[in-house]
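Database export, one record per block. Field names are fixed; values are copied verbatim from the stored entry.
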Amino acid sequence: MEYPFASGLVLEPEQYRAGLNPPGTLSAADKEFALRWYPPADTAPPALVPFRSAPLGLGPGEQADFVIDPPETRAYTLGTFGDSDAVVVVFEERDGEPRYLAGRDDGGTPHNATISARLVKGRRYVVRVRLYSAWGSGETAVMCW
């Protein structure tokens, strides 16, 4: 980010000794960095279809979002598979806003994050998977059944 600095605060390089007064807008580097963490708002997440796994190519700290439009009202299980340190959270969309429904963190254990939740036909749900591992991505997938 670009921040102003008063005269005398920056000694090197010499051209900034009189102070630094950026235009007060986001730089191209700021925008590029933000897009790595926050996907564009107009990009719809892919569908998570029951009984089909979705491979995840996440790096440390990255997140993947999916939508579920359940074909019937019943209890569903949602979870990750593979070698990862992940958290899975399910939101129900209400009035266009995601509302927390359930979540599970595998807590760095050898077990995968798994949730059982009652999903209602005609409602939309968002599943978010975040990889917490600092050591690498591992081989991971998410599935709803």
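Remark 1: The two ends are 44 Å apart (CA to CA).
Remark 2: The mean pLDDT is 87.
End of record.
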